[in-house]
Amino acid sequence: MKILFINPPSDHEIMGNNPRVLEEERGYNPPLGLLYISTFLRKNGFKDIKIIDAQVGELSYTDLFQKIKDFSPEVVGLTVMTFTLLDVIKTVRWIRNNLDGVKIVVGGPHAHLYPKETLEALDADFAIMGEGEHSMLMLMENMGDREKYKDIPGIVFRDGEEVVFGAPPHLIQNLDEIPHPDRTLLPFKKYNSILSSESPVTTMFTSRGCPYKCRFCDRPHLGKSFRAHSAEYVIREMSECEALGIKEILIYDDTFTIDRKRTLKICELYRRAGLNVRWDIRARVNTVDEEVVKALKEANCQRIHFGVEAGTEKILKVLNKGITKKQAMEAFALCRKYKVETLAYFMIGSPEETERDIFESFKFARKLKPDYLHLTILTPFPGTEIYFQGIREGLFPDYWREFAENPTENFKPRFWEKEIPEKKLRALIIKGYRSFYFRPSYILKRVSKLKSREEYLKKFRAAFKLLKWQQ
After folding, report:
1. In percent, how much of the chain has pLDDT > 70?
2. Is the distance from CB of 350 to CB of 319 less than 8 angstroms?
3. Rounded distance between C-alpha atoms, residue 192 and residue 236, angstroms
4. To 5 degrees, how large is the angle CA 433–CA 434–CA 440?
């Protein structure tokens, strides 16, 4: 069976309200979900598998469609995020109009939240809710046997005019049973990051699920139970990456440091293995202490991304963030002490937030002294408590569901505008970026740390984007 996984171009991405100053540039993030499933299928006997990442390959739709035609797949799989839905639709429609008999399988956050709407909008054959490795394998093993579809965890499929839901989604408890993603299935040398001074760069997951209950965030397809790879598994994957010549690993766990004992063991095993590959992580300020930060530094962890989100205790409580400003100050101070770079995530436009609160956040961001600041305007995402609150209070209808049912190119995500209107929020975020990045002291500090012409050009492009976005 010929199976093709596609990461389509991002020509119609709808998340255009916030600036992309520090987010990894388009095409620079390997589609890990597709890579995990492809590797899992190959390990279980399905060898004729190909992945096309149109973004890193900078493929036009014409180029992509030719590659699809050349491969002539029997099954096509795509990850669907709400923001990329339009590009997935365009890709699937071309397949439907030009290739006969191809089965379309979709998964990801959007398909999990809106499975019925996704099937209908895409004219797909199957949607998979939850994690996809086992479900996709079961589907491939039983393709064409409709009686067995209902037993597949998380499967949603068409039976004539009816949309049928199979067994409940399945969360994999022992993550070590999943093989390391085979990065050679992608042009792995092309991936890099604006934050890294070297390339190639890859991404990596060492755990799934987040137990915290922030009101602005939700990853429904991964669940709320924290499940982690063993430290030994993590080090073996890091070793494989280093053997490929990868220079830095961006670990995309929601919170890498939830299990303190595991974190310290990973650092210990890294040192024992004599690895040199650099890495960075995402963490919460209340899950690091001096021993952890010191161990991370000694294990060549270059950078920690902290979600601070707000600079007032009031808004931290509104967001149910579960941290304090004092904890943030202590975490960033420890990172400075051990020379671990930091990236601070902040949001503006939260419920109950005033302009005064926002300026307090900007002030606090400068006080933390992170190496990088990433600012966004809060967008109520589908499935989050803040989104449901906005619907209850009549601030907006269930517009994400409306978009899922009727995707249009003129769709625009909403902000929370009860306290501050969008126009003002957009002006404020520019002030926040300017007050942080355009300080002479900051500019001199960053220029002094540049290590290469390539790094200089990446940083210059980011600054140019910010200036352009302000116009």
Report:
1. 90
2. yes
3. 21
4. 125
Helix (H, G, I), strand (E, B) or coil at 358: helix
Stated as kind and residue range, the H or E segment containing 372 is strand 372-377
Nearest to 169 by CA among 104, 119, 107: 107
Q: What is the DSSP string of 74-86?
A: SEEEEE--GGGHH
Give the pLDDT confidence of 340-368 residue by residue, as tens digits.
Answer: 999 999 999 999 999 999 999 999 999 99
Q: Which CATH architecture has domain 3-165?
A: 3-Layer(aba) Sandwich (3.40)
Tokens of 415: 């902000």
d(CA 405, CA 446): 46
Nearest partner of 340 among 272, 268, 292, judged by Cα: 292
CATH 3.40.50.280 maps onto the chain at: 3-165
Beta carbons of 206 and 228 less than 8 angstroms apart: yes
Q: What 3-state DSSP class applies to 7?
A: strand
- Report how far residue 250's alpha carbon sits from residue 282's, in angstroms, rounded to the nearest whole number: 9
Q: Where in the chain is the domain with CATH 3.80.30.20?
A: 192-379+415-470
Token pair of 468, please? 């352009």
**67-115 tens-digit pLDDT:** 999 999 999 999 998 888 999 999 999 999 999 999 999 999 999 999 9
Q: Can you give the pTM of this predicted structure?
A: 0.91
Identify the helix (H) or strand (E) that includes residue 128. strand 126-128
Q: How many angstroms separate the CA atoms of 351 and 430, rounded? A: 20
Mean pLDDT, residues 265-274 taken together: 98
| Kind of pairing between the strands at 103-107 and 155-159 | unpaired
pLDDT band at 122 (very low <50, low <70, confident <90, very high): very high
- Cα separation, 28 vs 16, whole angstroms: 18
**Spatial separation of the C-alpha atoms in residues 157 and 83, rounded to whole Å:** 23
Cβ contact 158:121 at 8 Å: no
Residue 113 CB contacts under 8 Å (≥ 6 apart), including other chains: 82, 220, 382, 383, 400, 404
Average pLDDT on 375-401 reads 94
The highest-level CATH class for domain 192-379+415-470 is: alpha beta
Please name the residue that has the structure tokens 């960053």: 446
Which string of DSSP letters, residue by residue, matches 276-328?
Answer: --EEEEEE-GGG--HHHHHHHHHTTEEEEEEEEE-SSHHHHHHTT----HHHH
Angle at 420 (CA atoms; ends 217, 114), nearest 5 degrees:
35
